[in-house]
Q: What sequence folds into this?
């Protein structure tokens, strides 16, 4: 499988780091090399948050993704910050209900999902991240589809496991969108 | 095959310490290492261990001194400014010949500095973190797996030589998650610990743990004895990894997170036909002198890649007797170099 250098970015509280953790857990279950690196510090308390996920067949060198081939953004400042870093031919996933503008580049593939609106309309409030992630998984194939449920199960802390079904529904909704 | 789990570097240190029989943790919170304390706070009460958040870093290191005196495995963790506060206690541990583990998940300095990753405590850690003539064993992990493995190894080495060990990590390694196979359980007791103060039962003369020696002759003798041990350590304990060094004409020297970044740069340079390799110190004290000395006869130049103003450059130049030039690729203050920045220095 190809190497995936993924950046997921948005506001603190949108589940940015958790989205990356789902991919990391899937990578673990597929026995691939991987790293997950969060931004840490004050930005976690409401500023911009992002995380780098590397999924690779080779041992992971730097865990810091400088040139992503997959970018998922949930606010405009993040699109502004990371759009130019995406490698040509890369894929950008945009929550179009939060980011009014389009991707400017024409050498990347853009996917627009009104994830926050879909979440609100379908009783999945707060799960826009999982909707967008579902779409990302479908269009990148960065993790295996049949491993999503197990990965999600592992990523959710035991005390919150009652949220499994709603998270899984959100991923499916994004996958089908 | 043992099971791989996904863990943050900080959590891997904590779990590895518990697996290594450590049942006493004393600390004081500071970013970016607080996950270690949080993990210990959750786990220690369940395994009949002690987690104590002390009133200060200084109090915590002195609690470590207390438990270390009994020969039991004990640790503290902090980040750069907090480690500075612990230095008095670390010196006392060294002066009393006590094994203990001190974890330093470094952040930018000096002063309160910042909370982003750094390697700016290299001098502090490798030259002796405190007053007086002494060293600590100093390990520089470069992955979550090594965070776990070197934690167990650091405990054992500390006991073998009766001295403190320091795990010198940084904020990136502490915060990142990677798959890790946790080390097998172990415990103290492999080496003589008849020195420990565990109660005499009126059956033996009491032991004294002390770092105060008012007779200059006696203190001098102890210092010379300690440095004889250090010479043995320099012979037996250096650890390093060589990467693509066989035909290398340029040698990158880097430890910890910057070694990871450098590896990407080395791979890219190789694709471009540049014969570059890397020596990654895993122990930074003792410094892996031998492989560098050997490389000095083969390569044209060295590149020191670090998250500080080039503190390791001195050690490289000493190791190679200044035979070849040593270029720097450095970032500080919490900034990290990109592989492209390292590549640019390789291509210079």
A:
């Amino acid at each position: 499988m190809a190497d995936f250098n993924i950046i997921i970015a948005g506001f603190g509280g949108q589940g940015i780091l958790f989205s990356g953790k789902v991919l990391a857990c899937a990578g673990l279950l597929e026995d691939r090399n991987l790293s997950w690196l969060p931004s840490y510090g004050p930005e976690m308390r409401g500023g911009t948050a992002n995380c780098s996920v590397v999924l690779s067949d080779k041992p992971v060198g730097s865990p810091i993704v400088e040139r992503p081939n997959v970018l998922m953004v949930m606010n405009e400042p993040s699109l502004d910050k990371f759009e130019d870093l995406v490698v040509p031919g890369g894929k950008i996933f945009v929550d179009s209900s939060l980011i009014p503008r389009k991707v400017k580049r024409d050498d990347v593939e853009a996917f627009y999902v009104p994830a926050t609106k879909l979440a609100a309309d379908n009783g999945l409030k707060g799960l826009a991240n999982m909707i967008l992630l579902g779409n990302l998984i479908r269009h990148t194939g960065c993790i295996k589809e049949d491993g999503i449920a197990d990965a999600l199960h592992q990523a959710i802390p035991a005390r919150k496991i009652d949220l499994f079904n709603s998270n899984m529904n959100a991923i499916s909704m994004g996958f089908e969108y | 095959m043992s099971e791989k789990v996904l863990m943050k570097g900080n959590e891997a240190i904590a779990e590895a310490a518990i697996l290594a029989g450590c049942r006493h943790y004393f600390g004081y919170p500071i970013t970016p290492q607080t996950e270690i304390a949080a993990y210990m706070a959750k786990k220690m009460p369940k395994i009949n261990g002690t987690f104590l958040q002390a009133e200060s870093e200084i109090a915590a290191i002195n609690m470590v001194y207390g438990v270390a005196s009994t020969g039991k495995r004990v640790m503290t963790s902090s980040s750069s400014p907090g480690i500075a506060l612990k230095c008095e206690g670390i010196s006392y541990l060294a002066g009393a010949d006590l094994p203990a583990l001190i974890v330093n998940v470094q952040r930018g300095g000096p002063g309160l500095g910042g909370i982003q990753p750094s390697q700016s405590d290299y001098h502090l850690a490798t030259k002796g973190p405190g007053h007086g003539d002494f060293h600590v064993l100093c390990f520089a992990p470069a992955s979550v797996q090594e965070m776990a493995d070197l934690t167990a190894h650091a405990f054992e080495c500390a006991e073998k030589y009766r001295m403190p060990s320091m795990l010198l990590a940084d904020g990136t390694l502490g915060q990142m998650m990677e798959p890790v196979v946790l080390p097998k359980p172990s415990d103290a007791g492999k080496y003589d610990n008849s020195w420990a103060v565990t109660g005499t039962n009126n059956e033996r003369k009491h032991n004294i743990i002390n770092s105060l020696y008012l007779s200059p002759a006696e203190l001098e003798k102890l210092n010379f004895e300690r440095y004889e041990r250090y010479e043995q350590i320099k012979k037996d304990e250096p650890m390093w990894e060589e990467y693509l060094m066989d035909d290398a004409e340029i040698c990158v020297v880097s430890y910890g997170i910057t070694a990871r970044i450098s590896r990407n740069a080395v791979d890219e340079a190789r694709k471009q036909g540049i014969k570059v390799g890397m020596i990654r110190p895993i122990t930074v004290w003792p410094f892996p002198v031998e492989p560098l000395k050997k490389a000095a006869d083969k390569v044209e130049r060295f590149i020191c890649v670090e998250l500080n103003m080039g503190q390791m450059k001195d050690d490289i130049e000493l190791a190679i007797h200044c035979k070849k030039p040593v270029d720097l690729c450095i970032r500080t203050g919490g900034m990290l170099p990109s592989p492209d920045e390292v590549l640019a220095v390789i291509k210079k």
User: Anything to note?
Assistant: The CA atoms of residues 9 and 78 of chain A lie 6 Å apart.
